[in-house]
């Protein structure tokens, strides 16, 4: 597998543009299965997860043409309701295609999804919501066989504001008869983007971004051309990378309201964060201050996806910082790798106590998941000496050409083919 060689110690300076959001494009691509009309998507990141979702659509009969960051899809030929196990086991977000396929064909077969091993991510809320819409589900032997004669609107209360469950129900309910109400829905910006995309196709959804989403089912959709929102997690990753290296970076293509919780955390360290047209400038200071306590929470709280990148920065902040992971129980796999660099981190249950150190030293490390891998890159950018990071295929799942973007900011980073 490919690996990174990073020689740390260079301040990041310059301009970097953020691509479309991974966590927005995946459910949008899944929703393409709802329609038989042409879909044109702009600002689509070139990521392995996106390629896998496109492969799923292609296996179902969708015709796909890619031109740089634009994808042109012709879903008129979709006629396969079974989702290939190979891709489903690679990409967890594939589960949301279940609702779309049910909305189109009234049946679907899919195995339990895979993805990064960051903890249990049960899909019981997905299945409970679909059953409320009238779907019959046989989940014997780790495989989901789903059928429905007629999807019917329902009043659904989620026990937890699950992003995936909210998306899956939205997709299926878009073709259901009557009105569906999702209560305690996830509020993430990606939910709003999915609503806006479906509405651009002729759907009737309201309330995304609040805890109550209302879906009026429609019979058919129209052709659509749409631009995906920028990636707030990639934005946050470049923000903390600029901060830890003492850099001065302008991050272009940013929706400021989507990254407010990250902005607040960086300002707590004393780092300068300036809001400018369509972007954010991060100007670091010589000595960053520790952050008292960061707790990951559903949006608009601090995102779990930013926990590991933030922790990498905190290893170099003056004083003691505390981080509590409330979303995933197994999301500290990056901690032993950061310790190889000299980081002072102690984990107690779901809380990490980080004592800032004067210097990190280059080390040989392995990325164990997407965001943990990004954290290792961030730490290596500031470390003295050379670092080697293996298994960077994890990083490729969520960051397009990360090494190229960092090189453009002055980092010494090379991708070595495995």
Structure description:
This protein has 14 helices and 23 strands. With 418 residues, it is α+β, with helices and mostly antiparallel strands. The protein folds into two domains: 3-18 and 230-416, UDP-n-acetylglucosamine1-carboxyvinyl-transferase, Chain (Alpha-beta prism); 22-217, Enolpyruvate transferase domain (UDP-n-acetylglucosamine1-carboxyvinyl-transferase, Chain), CATH 3.65.10. Strands 21-22-1-23 form a four-stranded mixed β-sheet. Strands 2-14-16-15 form a four-stranded mixed β-sheet, with helices on one face. α1 (22-31) runs parallel beside α2, α1 (22-31) packs parallel to α4 and α4 (97-105) packs parallel to α6 (163-173). Mean pLDDT is 95; it is low at 115-120.
């Amino acid at each position: 597998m490919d690996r990174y060689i990073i020689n740390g110690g260079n301040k990041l300076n310059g301009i970097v543009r953020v691509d479309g959001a991974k966590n927005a494009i995946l459910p949008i691509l899944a929703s393409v299965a709802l329609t038989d009309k042409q879909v044109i998507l702009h600002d689509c990141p070139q990521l392995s997860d996106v390629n896998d979702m496109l492969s799923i659509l292609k296996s179902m009969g969708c015709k796909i043409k890619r031109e740089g960051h634009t994808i042109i899809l012709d879903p008129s030929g979709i006629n396969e309701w079974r989702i290939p196990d190979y891709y489903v086991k690679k990409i967890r977000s594939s589960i949301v295609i279940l609702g779309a396929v049910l909305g189109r064909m009234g049946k679907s077969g899919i195995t339990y999804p895979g993805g990064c091993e960051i903890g249990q991510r049960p899909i019981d809320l997905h299945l409970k919501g679909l059953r409320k819409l009238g779907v019959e589900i046989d989940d014997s032997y780790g495989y989901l066989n789903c059928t429905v004669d007629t999807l019917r609107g329902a009043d659904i209360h989620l026990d937890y504001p699950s992003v995936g469950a909210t998306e899956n129900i939205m997709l299926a309910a878009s073709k259901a008869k009557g009105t569906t109400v999702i209560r305690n829905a996830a509020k993430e910006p990606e939910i709003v983007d999915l609503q806006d995309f479906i509405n651009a196709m002729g759907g009737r959804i309201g309330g995304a971004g609040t805890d109550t989403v209302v879906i009026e089912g429609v019979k058919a959709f129209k052709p659509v051309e749409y631009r995906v929102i920028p990636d707030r997690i990639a934005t946050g990753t470049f923000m903390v990378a600029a901060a830890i290296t003492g850099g001065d970076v302008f991050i272009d293509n940013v929706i400021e309201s989507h990254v407010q919780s990250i902005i607040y955390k960086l300002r707590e360290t004393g780092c300068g964060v300036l809001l400018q047209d369509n972007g954010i400038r991060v100007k670091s200071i010589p000595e960053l201050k520790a952050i008292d306590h960061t707790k990951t929470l559903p949006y608009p709280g601090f995102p779990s996806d930013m926990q590991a990148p933030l922790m990498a920065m905190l290893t170099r902040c003056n004083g003691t910082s505390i981080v509590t992971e409330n979303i995933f129980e197994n999301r500290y796999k990056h901690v032993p790798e950061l310790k190889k660099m000299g980081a002072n981190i102690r984990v107690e249950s779901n809380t990490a106590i980080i004592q800032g150190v004067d210097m990190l030293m280059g080390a040989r490390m392995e990325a164990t998941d997407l965001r943990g891998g990004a954290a290792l890159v961030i730490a290596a950018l500031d470390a003295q000496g050379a670092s080697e990071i293996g298994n960077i295929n994890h990083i490729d799942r969520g960051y397009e050409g990360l090494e190229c973007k960092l090189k453009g900011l002055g980092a010494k980073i090379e991708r070595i083919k495995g």
